[in-house]
Design goal:
single chain; alpha/beta; four-stranded mixed β-sheet; 17 helices; 18 strands; 44% helix
């Protein structure tokens, strides 16, 4: 982006930059946003004053005895490069004062700097339009205080310096670094997107304990609908599922993290719009489980990030460096699963997988990396058959998928489709295009980047779930249908697999790099965010998630 292409800077963005330059960049340049209790409360406070009302005469018609109040006044200046929507403008005695509403209370020493400079921007814009604005007012809703702020030379100078710094930062291709162990971070609306402590650690900055600044698990949960002929609708603030022969089911929209529908399931326009407005993706699958479509809001965020993703995908050196991380993570986690579950603890295989992981780390080209991954998978799946208490037709010949000939291969295929769906959701949330991969090559209708990001999680989640289902006899022959050479799950069988998969995704695991405990679903989201930071140049290399 050039200086000429940079749009007018909103006064609120000057506030954000003064608070944290990285917050400003992620919010304004990448278009990131996430609601929390503070932002919702702030929106309610501003809703009372943002509606346009009243009038403000031109400055030449503003007489000393006139008194006016205007609400929701839009102002802009090409010369200053600034734009604002002023909550209230009070005119009296030939002068005007902007009034900016805040939801909380002032600091122990008075207003915070971000609040002062935002108000100052409004004053400067009023001056630019010919009004006499010597001071402004900050109104704090929680304490009902009005604090008068003089627009003195020091405040104006500081405000313009911040505007100049902001415009310079906006032209860079990489976000500013995160704040170092700052007390501001826990209450920041974008903390789960920014990952300040994690980014600082991976960039080699000296840092103490990495704080877990996001919940270990999501409050919301995935919703699956696979009953054929079912209709997903909306009633008030609830999602309603009606299926032939079944009792109506409802769930609060607030509690829905994603909606997955299988086969012939309809979603009403009202339900679709309500979910999209809340950034809840709707994932459409074939009856057998493969993802065929995703319904989301328009991809209006992170446009520059996706442009960089496409450049990285077309750059053999950059894509290979990240692809090594995907494959190394997968092989090392395959080794972990074998070490934990194989009854004989095969030392030779464990050494071979460790050797192949080292070779993958040094692979000179994509074809060699693909070959190393293939060698590791053949050795791993030969041992996988020996970890099954009841092989159910799965043997040392390994993984077969088109079509899966036996129950274990059918289970693996379905669990992999669930895992890829999670990868698509995480990448969309991170602002990346799930269909343009770095390791998996471009293919029509294939979510290549989602396949990339879930490689390291296949052994830990999908393969582990299948072992658990088979070895605990939680699934049996009646849960499968054999049609010629193809084996597939019944509706009841899929339901059991989904329950086991969701239980695994909800398991807490200690992150090997950051030391805190989060769910596997949260880990996938974190890895997608870190991948986005690698693509943007914010991080130097992709570090896979690997358990011991």
């Amino acid at each position: 982006m050039s200086e000429r292409e940079l749009p007018l800077v909103p006064a609120r963005m000057v506030n954000e930059y003064a608070y944290c330059p990285r917050l400003f960049y992620l919010e304004w340049i990448h278009g990131e946003w996430a609601e929390n209790a503070d932002t919702l409360e702030g929106a309610q406070v501003h809703a009372r004053v943002e509606a346009e009302s009243g009038r403000l005469p031109p400055p030449e018609l503003l007489a000393p005895g006139d008194r006016f109040v205007a609400r929701g006044l839009p102002l802009a200046s090409e010369r200053l490069g600034l734009v604002a929507r002023v909550d209230i403008v009070e005119a009296e005695g030939g002068r005007v004062r902007p009034v900016d509403y805040k939801k909380g209370r002032p600091g122990p020493r008075g207003p915070w700097e971000p609040e002062l400079v935002q108000l100052c921007v409004q004053g400067l814009l009023l001056r630019e339009h010919g009004y006499r604005a010597d001071e402004g007012i900050l109104y704090y809703a929680a304490s009902r205080q009005r604090i008068v702020v003089p627009f003195d030379d020091a405040l104006i100078s500081r405000t313009m310096d911040l505007v100049a710094e902001l415009r310079e930062a906006a032209l860079r291709s990489v976000p500013p670094p995160p704040l170092r162990e700052s007390p501001k971070c826990p209450s920041c609306v974008l903390v789960g997107i920014c990952l300040p402590d994690e980014i600082a650690l991976l960039r080699g900055a000296p840092i103490g304990e990495v704080r877990r600044l996001v919940p270990a698990r999501d409050d919301a949960a995935p919703v699956y609908v696979q009953e054929q002929g079912a209709v997903v609708g909306r009633a008030g603030e609830r999602l309603v599922v009606r299926a032939p022969g079944r009792e109506e089911a409802t769930i609060r929209l607030l509690d829905v993290a994603q909606l997955s529908v299988y086969g012939n399931v309809q979603v009403t326009a009202q339900a679709l719009r309500s979910l999209v407005e809340r950034d809840v993706p709707i994932l459409h699958h074939t009856y057998g489980g493969w993802l065929i479509a995703v319904t989301t809001a328009p991809m209006r965020r992170n446009i520059l990030l996706r442009a960089e993703q496409y450049r990285a995908a077309d750059d053999p050196e950059r894509s290979l460096a990240t692809s090594r991380g995907f494959v190394v993570g997968k092989i090392r986690n395959q080794r972990t699963l074998v070490r934990r579950n194989h009854p004989a603890k095969p030392v030779g295989l464990l050494r071979e997988l460790a050797r192949l992981a080292r070779l993958a780390q040094e692979a000179p080209d994509p074809d060699r990396l693909l070959g190393i991954e293939g060698l590791a998978s053949r050795a791993y799946f030969a041992a996988y058959a020996e970890m099954l208490r009841e092989p159910m037709g799965f043997d040392r010949s390994g993984r077969l998928r088109r079509p899966p000939p036996d129950p274990v291969n059918a289970l693996l295929s379905f669990c992999y489709s669930l895992l890829v769906k999670e990868g698509v959701r995480a990448l969309l949330a991170a602002g990346l295009d799930p269909y343009r991969g770095l390791y998996h090559r471009l293919r029509v209708a294939r979510p290549s980047l989602a396949l990339d990001i879930v490689e390291e999680f296949r052994p830990l989640i999908a393969d582990s779930v299948v072992l658990q289902l088979v070895n605990n006899r939680a699934i049996g022959s009646s849960d499968f249908i054999q049609r010629g050479p193809s084996c597939s799950l019944t509706s009841n069988g899929r339901r059991r697999v989904i329950r086991a998969f969701e239980a695994r995704m909800d398991d807490l695991v200690r992150h090997p790099l950051f030391g805190y405990q989060v769910s596997y679903r949260r880990v996938i989201e974190i890895q997608a965010r870190l991948l986005a930071r690698v693509i943007s140049g914010d991080l130097y290399e992709y570090r896979p998630f690997v358990t011991r």
